[in-house]
TrEMBL record, chain A:
The chain crosses the membrane at residues 18-37, 43-64, 85-113, 133-157, 164-189, 195-215, 227-251. This is DUF1538 domain-containing protein. Pfam families: DUF1538. Keywords: Membrane, Transmembrane, Transmembrane helix.
From TrEMBL, chain B:
GO terms for molecular function: antiporter activity. The keyword Membrane applies. It comes from Vreelandella salicampi. This is DUF1538 domain-containing protein. The chain crosses the membrane at residues 6-27, 39-57, 93-119, 131-152, 158-176, 188-211, 217-239. GO terms for biological process: potassium ion transport; sodium ion transport. It holds the Pfam family DUF1538. The keyword RNA-binding does not apply. The lineage of its organism: Bacteria, Pseudomonadati, Pseudomonadota, Gammaproteobacteria, Oceanospirillales. Keywords: Membrane, Transmembrane, Transmembrane helix.
Length: 254, 263
């Protein structure tokens, strides 16, 4: 019974997430555009799709809260207490990598990016080339988030200043932009924002806050949060590097 | 794609994190998992939920974003063009208005942002007003997206905008109270929820396809990046204003309560 109540509360949260989008688009459709929907888009299909979005998101987040988050947080605490820096860093990397692979927003945007890139002629227009581009893009982003979490954990351990490192990251991004192929720049910059959503943020924040609480002289508020900031700069750097060195590895690229 | 294919693909997507979690738990930490059946049910729900979400995404969210982009840039919808004249960027005002509304409305009601801003208000001991903080994040996000649509209309390179935003972030970082900096950087990530990202991506790609002279690959991306950067700037801006207001207030008991909370 408790389970059903918490599930319905999550359903309400998902609905509240979606409501502004539907209200704003509905308002613009009815008041500003005032045109019938194109034949390819039936209202019933859209409504059904939105039901899928809400039900899916509810199950997804509730499932995370039941399964992944409690063990993830326990593991983070266990590794902090274990006291082995090597294992802690290895775990940090794996956590960042694994959670990014399952991130829904990244799956969606990588698929869109692969279509656009193949239409733009950067890779072959075959289905398999698109799929391998989307897969490799997600892996590059996942590895970069793993690296970002490792750097963030090292920062908490050593007490390095966050803002100087972020600024350093910005400088690297801008320098790489100068030599990266211009087709990859937009995708690279966007990949930074895509990674930090449903799964990665809670898991990685739990690791950071747990770590900052366990180490003497660290403030959870000041030191626990920096991990997300790294996780949104590092993917830009890695995807730009992939654009410079890795694009020709994809089958059928020109 | 068929439903079965999507279910199969998402199974492969959640396999790595499941393997990592269970692997570290059983091989390295070597402890039994408490409530194992509950955990397994949780993973099953993640699998089904992610599959449903992706189906709905393809069927509703992406088409809605693209439809808005196509309709708002349709030549019959835009103001009439004098023969031979080139379209001025201000003709697309409905696009900017739509982008701003979507950005502001999705952010202001975001549950995780509400939680974060309440916590920040508590820690600051009243210097930071949670509602004002939420408004500054929402305004930053809305401004970021609107700027993103304007950039697509103009066709200017994304890196110019990002460069300027980076410089603003860096200047703000050195002028803001130290305690707000991690929170400000965090607020950039908070704004991009799983529902807003696909809508914004579809809007950007749709605009770049529909507006003459723009290409999806060169101009379509970048809105998410700008939507993440500007909240950082507005949050630090708000923190500076709040600090300044606090300092210029003559009453002495406010500074007192403040110092109580900073210990």
């Amino acid at each position: 019974m408790d389970f059903l109540i918490s599930l319905s509360r999550q359903l309400k949260d998902s609905l509240r997430d979606l409501a502004p989008v539907v209200l704003v688009i509905g308002f613009f459709q009815l008041v500003v555009i005032r045109q019938p929907l194109p034949d390819s888009l039936a209202l019933i299909d859209l409504a059904l799709g939105l039901v899928f979005v809400v039900v899916g998101l509810t199950l997804f987040i509730k499932g995370l809260e039941l399964g992944l988050f409690p063990i993830g947080e326990n593991l983070a605490r266990a590794f902090v207490q274990k006291g082995s820096v090597t294992w802690l860093l290895l775990f940090a990397f794996a956590l960042g990598l694994g959670s990014t692979v399952a991130e829904p927003a990244l799956i969606a945007v990588a698929a869109r990016a692969s279509e656009v890139v193949s239409e733009g002629g950067l890779i072959a227009s075959s289905e398999s080339a698109q799929q391998s581009f989307a897969f490799i893009l997600r892996m590059v982003v996942a590895i970069s988030v793993g690296t970002a979490v490792v750097v963030g954990v090292l920062r908490i351990l050593k007490g390095w200043p966050l803002h100087l490192m972020i600024i350093g990251g910005y400088v690297v991004v801008l320098l790489l932009t100068l030599i990266a192929p211009s087709e990859i720049i937009g995708i690279a910059y966007d990949s930074g924002g895509v990674t930090t959503s449903t799964i990665t943020v809670p898991l990685v924040t739990a690791l950071g806050v747990g770590l900052a609480t366990a180490i003497k002289g660290r403030n959870p508020m000041l030191d626990g949060f920096g991990l997300i900031a790294f996780a949104s700069v590092m993917p830009i750097i890695f995807v730009l590097l992939f654009g410079i060195f890795g694009l020709n590895l994809i089958a059928g690229s020109t | 794609m068929t439903l079965i294919a999507i279910f199969w693909d998402t199974l492969l997507d959640i396999l790595p994190i499941a393997a990592i979690i269970f692997g570290f738990q059983y091989i390295v930490i070597r402890k039994r998992i408490k409530h194992l059946s509950q955990v397994l049910i949780g993973f099953f729900m993640v699998w089904v939920g992610l599959s449903f979400f992706l189906v709905g995404l393809e069927q509703a969210l992406f088409p809605m974003g693209e439809l808005m982009a196509t309709q708002l840039t349709d030549t019959t919808f835009l103001p009439e063009l004098a023969a031979g004249a080139e379209r001025h960027w201000s003709d697309y005002y409905w696009v900017y208005l739509f982008a701003f509304t979507i950005g502001a409305s999705t952010t202001i009601a975001e549950p995780s942002l509400i939680a974060v801003s309440l916590k920040a208000g508590e820690i600051s001991g009243g210097t930071i007003n949670p509602l004002m903080l939420r408004i500054s994040v929402a305004l930053g996000m809305a401004f970021g997206i609107t700027l993103g649509t304007w950039r697509i209309v103009m066709g200017w390179p994304l890196q110019w905008f990002v460069l300027v935003a980076y410089i603003l972030v860096i200047i703000q970082t050195f002028r803001s109270p130290r305690s707000i900096i991690p929170l400000a950087f965090d607020s950039g990530g908070v704004t991009t929820s799983t529902i807003t990202v696909p809508i914004i991506a579809a809007l950007g790609l749709g605009l770049a396809t529909a507006i003459p002279g723009r290409s999806p690959i060169m101009d379509g991306f970048g809105m998410i990046a700008l939507a993440c950067l500007f909240p950082i700037i507005t949050v630090m801006g708000y923190a500076q204003v709040a600090e300044w207001l606090e300092r210029s207030r003559p009453s002495s008991d406010i500074t007192h309560t403040h110092s109580d909370h900073t210990t």
